[in-house]
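Structure first, sequence second, as always.
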């Protein structure tokens, strides 16, 4: 898209980065703020350090979360010394053009890698604390639940997946819990009832 500093291939991989006409902003603009609440659910599968997951809280939430994204991103960068991809490519600008919601959605951040999960826990403690609107699940997601080996890379690494496990020595992998999207949604329905879910 015009205004992006990334190549077309990079943009296809980085759709969470907001360019001049960002899809996520368009999605938010057409949604009625009055209908947003805990049953409006965003599940960020492979949320890495949570820098994109908290964007849903800022964009779909109450004024409480205004300015949360840059604070979160700075805290993550201070810990990991790795800048978020959207910052690297200079396409991390969101123009808020909608009224704030009266209630917060539920944002589920699913991340299996231990180093990133520790970062999420530390930064959450600083900015979100025990707020139920942000749920962190330490697990991988697949079509069947159970356990599996997953890369054990450094904090801030965003390119780990099941597909690279066979390329790594056993010392650079951990056995992690594996869940399914259906299991996550069923768990949410237990506490929230029927929910409207976006899986990203």
């Amino acid at each position: 898209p015009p205004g992006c500093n990334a190549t077309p291939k990079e943009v296809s991989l980085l759709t969470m980065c907001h360019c001049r006409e960002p899809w996520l902003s368009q999605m938010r603009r057409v949604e009625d703020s009055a209908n947003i609440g805990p049953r409006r659910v965003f599940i960020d599968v492979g949320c890495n350090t949570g820098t994109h997951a908290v964007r849903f809280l800022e964009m779909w939430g109450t004024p409480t979360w205004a300015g949360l994204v840059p604070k979160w991103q700075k805290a993550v960068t201070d810990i990991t010394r790795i800048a978020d991809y959207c910052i690297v490519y200079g396409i991390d600008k969101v123009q808020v053009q909608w009224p704030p919601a009266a209630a917060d959605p539920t944002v589920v951040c699913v991340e299996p890698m231990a180093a990133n999960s520790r970062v999420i826990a530390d930064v959450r403690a600083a900015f979100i604390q025990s707020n139920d609107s942000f749920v962190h699940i330490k697990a991988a997601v697949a079509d069947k639940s159970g356990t599996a080996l997953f890369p054990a890379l450094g904090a801030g690494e965003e390119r780990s997946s099941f597909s690279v496990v066979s390329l790594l020595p056993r010392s650079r992998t951990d056995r992690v819990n594996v869940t399914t999207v259906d299991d996550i949604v069923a768990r949410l329905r237990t506490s929230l009832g029927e929910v409207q879910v976006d899986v990203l």
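Margin note: DSSP finds seven helices and seven strands in the chain.
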